[in-house]
Amino acid sequence: MATIKDVAKLANVAPSTVSRVIANNPRISDKTKVRVREAMGELGYHPNFIARSLANKSTEAIGLVIPSSADKAFQNPFFPEIIRGISKGVHQKHYSLQMSTGETEDEIFEGVMQMVEGKRVDGIILLYSRVDDKLTGYLKRKKFPFVIVGKPFKDIEEITHVDNDNYRAAKEVTEHLIYLGHEQIAFVGGNLNFVVTIDRLLGYEKAIRNANLVYRDEYIVHEEFLKEGGQEAVKELFSLKEPPTALVVADDLMALGVLNMLDTMGINVPNDVSVVSFNNVMLSEVSRPPLTTVDINIFQLGYEAAKNMIQIIEEPLEPMKRIIVPYRIVERQSCIEYVKEHLQSV
Amino acid sequence: MATIKDVAKLANVAPSTVSRVIANNPRISDKTKVRVREAMGELGYHPNFIARSLANKSTEAIGLVIPSSADKAFQNPFFPEIIRGISKGVHQKHYSLQMSTGETEDEIFEGVMQMVEGKRVDGIILLYSRVDDKLTGYLKRKKFPFVIVGKPFKDIEEITHVDNDNYRAAKEVTEHLIYLGHEQIAFVGGNLNFVVTIDRLLGYEKAIRNANLVYRDEYIVHEEFLKEGGQEAVKELFSLKEPPTALVVADDLMALGVLNMLDTMGINVPNDVSVVSFNNVMLSEVSRPPLTTVDINIFQLGYEAAKNMIQIIEEPLEPMKRIIVPYRIVERQSCIEYVKEHLQSV
DNA sequence: TTGTAAGCGTTATCAC
DNA sequence: GTGATAACGCTTACAA
After folding, report:
1. By the 8 A CB rule, do B139 and B152 touch?
2. Nearest in space to A223 (alpha carbons), one of A71, A66, A80
3. Diameter of chain B by CA atoms?
4. Interface test with B, best of A286, A288, A333 (most B CBs within 10 A)
5. pLDDT in tens, B195-224
6. Nearest-angstrom CA–CA distance, B249 and B255
7. pLDDT digits (tens, 9 = 90+) for A142-197
8. Which sign does the torsion angle of CA A82, A87, A92, A98 carry?
9. Which PANTHER family does the annotation name (chains A, B) (predicted)?
10. How far apart (Å, rounded) are the C-alpha atoms in residues B144 and B312?
11. Is B225 in contact with B254 (CB distance < 8 Å)?
């Protein structure tokens, strides 16, 4: 493989000159630039990134931390989509992307340490935000550049993050249900350790309280993911004396599970119960019925995360930032007006 | 940040000794090992991976190439799942994972070149196999270590790859339909540029011919992805004078689209038409009806790819390998026996 | 068993 | 404008 020295020799210049040509340094005459570039072409030269990184103390790589791959949550189309966004932002600036997952929390932590201590990356994007997360604390202590997708659990004023206004979205969506005449609205959320769950729950609660509806604990269920989660939630909810007539579900995939279970129980959506969920993942269009859901702009979430991560790396003095990506309620066919004396279908 | 020299100083040894301790070189006395390790602990020393890579000419990183992120295919849960498998294999050997996507083919190619020429990775895993793929040719020419998930289009004897026996799986699944009494069986595939589509189509064809059924061109549709794809396919197929009574669909997600469209057309699955698909992605359990599908062991596909990639890197003399991951037909509720004079429901 | 010193391929700091 | 030369932090002959 050709090195910078070979090029220098062939072009009859010093290695440092070649380096300057690579960096397109303006103090090099056009003549030699051309000469050097020719030499590079002739030798099929490509700069060695590793060597450059060492000299530079910059890897132009950013690390991506994905939540524990053990659970099925990982199969959520949310991830490919946000990775797409991140990927775009990262490529635009010619950075590369380094992934890290693990089955347990400790494995993940281990992976991140490797990246940070080994100086394999210049910054880290966290794809989730959990209550009392070890990682966040670690990165803050190390003063290592990072951004969170989602809302930090604490130190919210010090950590750059990109998020939706989940509180407001949940509130709005619940209000929509209320507006449709529903008074018995349940909330089906994911793990309460995720900040996003909390926000959405809080928004839901606010809407309920504002409308002077009773906030009932038995209408709040937190379940693991999808299949089992959706099933359990639905079973619980619909064995109550007063089952809900509408459901706010914190995730499309969970909603799919819910829809499925409702169907096998012979409960019709939207005639018997309305369902609204979050994310507007591609699948929500194709479910039966198609889901009314809030589009949180996953792609943009990722794109912004990447852009801001790189900005922090390149301009370390920049203040912390909070980027709020807009959401949009997509009405499809899983919600309808609640009619007091409606007939149970079938 | 502490370097190897700082540790050496503190432990009163030469830097090379520290290096040997890191590598756990047996020729270092236990005494000094202990002393050095203490020094490392005291200073919070962690080896710098970049420096090591430069000296070593090995990055212990492997690059992952994901198909064009532009189309929705990318949102297929197939990817998170295979990444999980790869991730596991890669972590086991303490390698890291570098992702590369792009919106166009050229962008992807560009990204791979960066990885290869810049020596950012030691090997590359291709997550798809396409007819006449530029990348494959490039990597072969460069003699850069790589493995393909799927079946190479050419040079199949020279390229290490991990795949299912898609031909046989498709054949078997079609035979199953035939066994159930179906004689009008259509094939809904993805892009014919993907080798996997070809294999599955060929298996289907073989089964049809073996059974002396007529192989009709109008029963073969290749469509883009999911929503539109599924819709188009179904529309076409069911406007024929003799619409099929069973469908072999090359992907679960596509099958979801198909199910959806069938539903809006008032065609019942499985009563009016049976559907079988591929991949056994988590969603296939939750569709209405749950899909009969072939489980291709996505996770293992990824895991094997990673393991073999690393083996090739570490033992470059190893011969090429073909790893065939077993599949398994998962029967759920989308297929039933075909009854000649059955009544169209509704 | 350990130390010395060269080298990995760049960039950066001085000179000129 | 361009050239020497010293980093960058580690590994690895070769010596001792």
Report:
1. no
2. A71
3. 91
4. A286
5. 999 999 999 999 999 999 999 999 999 877
6. 6
7. 999 999 999 999 999 999 999 999 999 999 999 999 999 999 999 999 888 999 99
8. positive
9. HTH-TYPE TRANSCRIPTIONAL REGULATOR GALS (PTHR30146:SF109), LACI-RELATED TRANSCRIPTIONAL REPRESSOR (PTHR30146)
10. 10
11. yes
> CA–CA separation, B209 vs B91, rounded Å?
46
Q: How far is the CA of B213 from the C1' of D16 (A)?
A: 83
**Residues contacting residue B319 through CB under 8 Å, at least 6 positions apart:** none
pLDDT-based confidence at residue A344 (cuts at 50, 70, 90): low
What length is written for chain A? 346
What CA–CA distance (Å, rounded) separates A304 from A102? 25
Of B15, B94, B114, nearest in space to A52 by CA: B114
User: B105: which residues sit within 8 A by CB, 6+ positions away?
Assistant: B68, B134
Say which CATH class A61-164+298-315 falls into: alpha beta
What contacts B16, CB < 8 A, 6 or more positions away?
Answer: none
Q: Is A9 helix (H, G, I), strand (E, B) or coil?
A: helix
Distance from residue A7's CA to nucleotide C16's C1', rounded to whole Å: 23
Tell me how far CA of residue A132 lies from CA of B123, B314, B332, in angstroms. 37, 40, 41
pLDDT digits (tens, 9 = 90+) for B219-268: 999 877 666 777 788 999 999 999 999 999 999 999 999 999 999 999 99
**Residues A317-321: what's their mean pLDDT?**
89
- H helix count then E strand count, chain B: 12, 12
Looking at the DSSP bridge assignments, the partners of residue A148 are A126, A161
For residue B206, the distance in angstroms to the closest alpha carbon of chain A comes to 32
Q: Where in chain A is the domain with CATH 3.40.50.2300?
A: 61-164+298-315, 166-295+330-344
Cα–Cα distance, A340 to A325 (Å, whole number):
37
For residue A214, give the 3-state DSSP assignment: coil
Cα-Cα end-to-end distance for chain A: 74
pTM, full prediction: 0.94
For chain A, how big is the Rg over CA atoms in Å?
26
**Lateral strand order in the sheet of B220-222:** B220-222, B185-189, B246-249, B274-278, B292-295, B328-330
Decide: B252 and B188 in contact? Cβ < 8 Å: no
pLDDT at A341 over 80: no
B126 and B195 Cβ atoms separated by less than 8 Å: no
CATH tag, A166-295+330-344: 3.40.50.2300
Is A81 within 8 Å of chain B by CB? Answer: yes
What is the reported pLDDT for A139? 96
CA distance B280 to B295: 5
Give me the pLDDT at residue A55, please. Answer: 95
Distances (CA, A) of A111 to A99, B88, B90, B125: 9, 12, 11, 20
Sign of CA dihedral A173, A176, A178, A181: negative
Residue A86 to residue A303: CA distance in whole angstroms: 5
Contact B252, B264 (CB under 8 A): no
- For Cα atoms A49, A53, A56, give the angle at the middle one, nearest 5 degrees: 135
Q: Which residues of B306-328 are buried (b: 16+ CB within 10 A; e: fewer)?
A: bbbbbbbbeeeeeeeeebebebe
Q: Does A333 touch chain B (CB under 8 A)?
A: no
Q: Residue A17 CB closer than 7 angstroms to strand D?
A: yes
